[in-house]
Amino acid sequence: QNALRRSLSSGEKPTTAPPPRPPPRAAKTTIGASGPHVANDATTGRGPISWPALGLAAVVSASAVGYYQVERERRMEEAMGKVVSTGKPAIGGEWTLVDMNGNLVTNKSFEGRWTLLYFGFGRCPDICPSEMVKVGKVMDTMKEKYPELVKKVQPIFVSVDPARDSIKALREYGKDFHPSYIYLTGTPEQVQKMAKKYRVYVSKAEETEDGDYLVDHSIVMYFHDDKGDLADCFTQSMRPSDVIEKIVDRMTFVPTI
């Protein structure tokens, strides 16, 4: 006060201290089990991952898987073509199974005919029926366009589930598909031996509570010439028209000397 009086008496203007700055605004927090966390507000940036980014990643992943499967089948077909053209492939061989009349049949039983061999099982819910129908379309189309060639082609279905695919079961199963099919089964040992020679993957899935189960297996058709040698193979991705084109090409091929 004395200083203030002296300054007033001397005519000097009193000096005042600047107003105090307001305290910094604290961020809102939430309390959780692990302690306080700073909550996002309007000034907080978005996180590094958004829903559109996740969706794009899913689409890219699915495309990559689809491309891998197609590329794998394409390489398999190319490899088979190279093996067939350069020599006798190490696929197939001698085998013995049982037909729907209970008779033993072997690979030599079909010499003189071109065979279209497919491994499957009677209780397959979707893939096997689809491939069987495909073969039926191949046979019907060839009957119209290549009647002389189709007479030499014999479709064969080999069961990889002999425990359930009895002769009676396969007879019933065959009623739903092309009449030209021949159905073969056998003992588990006979089927296993043949599958191994054709490098067919077969794996029984876990049984359900009622004892039912599926069988995972390779999805390939094996086309043999009239001498019983493997001429080509057809994968699941091929259309009936693609199969027909290859069959006709193999059956009409004339080697040059």
Helix content: 25-40%
Low-pLDDT sequence parts: 26-45, 79-86
Secondary-structure element string: HEEHEEEHHEHEHEEEEH
What is Rg?
37 Å
Physical arrangement of strands within the biggest beta sheet:
7-6-5-10-11
Briefly note the structural class of the backbone: alpha+beta
Number of helices: 7
Distance between the termini: 126 Å
Largest sheet, if any? 5 strands, mixed
Mean pLDDT: 80
Which helices and strands, and how do they pair?
Layout: H1 2-10, E1 29-32, E2 35-38, H2 51-86, E3 96-98, E4 104-106, E5 114-120, H3 127-145, H4 147-150, E6 153-159, H5 167-174, E7 182-184, H6 188-197, E8 202-204, E9 215-217, E10 220-224, E11 230-235, H7 240-251
Parallel strand pairs: 5-6, 6-7
Antiparallel strand pairs: 1-2, 3-4, 5-10, 8-9, 10-11
Helix pairs in contact: 3-7
